[in-house]
């Protein structure tokens, strides 16, 4: 505080001195007489006196303040000296206390050591007493053949702390022996353990031979008591492996009497794995109690080896009994003939040597079913049983892996990893090295290909007459659209094969099947069937063909074509539902159980096929309209294909059964990998299908619709002297909407049959092409149209009615007419709505509308109005 005051005084003096100097400098500048000099001298003297006085006061105050500070510091130094003295005194006390504490701690440790020594001596004496008592008890029990008591006593001795040091100590050697039992403890225990081990081994083997479960269990529990854990587990493992082998022999000896059972070997393998699973579950309690849970790993390894051996024998007998190799060889030969036939066909096409159609084709690539040594029904049964065998193994592998992790005290993880006995299993190696899995692939793919080929050979198409005759458009469910019977059969075939492959639980197998299925659908169904069918029909389509009722001509030399019947509704040809839509239903796509036996899902597809008339369609006496019917059915089939494949690959496998793949493929990230692959498979199929759809609809538009649309638009939007460039309306014809009403009638007559027959997305795709053509044509016509004021109003009415007729409630299609509607809107504006200088609409109107027309286009559009003022 004093220092602050002193600083303030210094500042005040400096400030006053500066003011005086400035004042003196100013007065000096104004001096002009000697009297002024005298006056200035007096002023300076007075100022000097004042400043001297202030300086003396300041010095006095400063000295006083300084003396106060010095006295205060002296007092603080005195206090500090007192504190230091007390600190040194306390430090001395602490050193004395520390020394005393160390002395006390040393005494305490010495007492603790003495207590520990006394306690160890006491424990040692107690253990010696326990040892002596138990040795006496063991000797008595062995003489009385009470081996359980003897084993229990031996276990109690071996569980004593420092067992080895105890029995070998000099004290024990002197105290424990007696006149009746003179041997040393270590020698006695070794001899007794060897004697009891041999005795327990003989009793275990005898009990196993006699199937005496109670004695077997009792003896098994006593092996760890005499330190023979490994021997007990080995004997037990051999015992359970003998049980497995014996059950397997029973199964194999029954195979002749069970030869007619189509699922005998899959049931036999399941029974075998049930035995193994029961052993692991039930006996693990005894092992965990008597031996320790970790010893189950040893038992499971031995059990798995025996299960592997017996399962491999069953698999070999299955393959031999069902003639698996012979069937696979026939399929390989068939595939080879098919490839050779395809190569010859390709070579003929390249060489342009297809002229001799009447020559007999000697290739083996045709229908060679008679050359196969098995029937399709036999193949179905074989695939079912094979799938169940693989499924049983997969379920067992999952059970074994889960239990292995539990007995290994592994923390439960989100990812299940197969243990070594499963990953290196001989059964797995056998499936791969002896090509069982690849043979299963061949069986399923042959069944798929051959059944699909049979389905094509008896293909049937529904009739469209009832749909075409409906006077108005009726919305239908997706399953009611008419499609080819081949697609229905294909959906059943794919589902059956998916069931068979998913049930196997074999990741590599199902992954490979998805790839093959994707290739099959794209090549065999979309390209070789759908694309070829559409290409065959396209040359027969022309602008003169209309979608009308098909009435085949009656010829005395040819039979009348039969009526088409839907497989799911035998009244489809004559009955109409409540909505006025014929009951042409797609095969039911209800949920199915992948977990169940595949046999329950496999049915005879030939019994579900429709009765068709495609053969009649290619005769010369049939009207050309039938080809358009077929063409539309195939387009519908393409759209429904996307729905079916999505349901089969995504909905039923992933969405409706979210745990299906994770349950069947539990190891690692296999289920997630399969989900990604299924999604990729569907995506590839969708892309190929979409290309085919766009190509087929575009062809139909260009060859059937284009000419009809041109005719419909010829006399439209013309209103004056039949000049296409004028749309002049007067009071006499302003209300005349005859032309647009006629267009509406003809348009509905043209489009409603297509709307009733064609898939909803298909008709939208077709209308998109139609609208694009109409918009391009009308934009060119409107760009040169001359319109008066009444004509603009009438044109707006006709265009609105035209757009509503063509587009309906499809607002995406309506948006394509935006440029035309804005041109007509401009023609209806008053002259006052335009800026005189720019000739464009005024700013308030321009900002209130989302224009697609540029300012220059708006100016040009206004020029179409012939009665404007400027």
TrEMBL record:
Keywords: Golgi apparatus, Membrane, Protein transport, Transport
One of the GO biological process terms: pexophagy
Localization, UniProt: Golgi apparatus membrane
Bilayer topology term: Peripheral membrane protein
Entry superkingdom: Eukaryota
Domain COG4 transport protein middle alpha-helical bundle: 189-535
Stretches for region Disordered: 342-367
Gene Ontology CC: Golgi membrane; Golgi transport complex
Family to which the UniProt record says this protein belongs: Belongs to the COG4 family.
Protein name in the entry: Conserved oligomeric Golgi complex subunit 4
Organism (species): Naumovozyma castellii
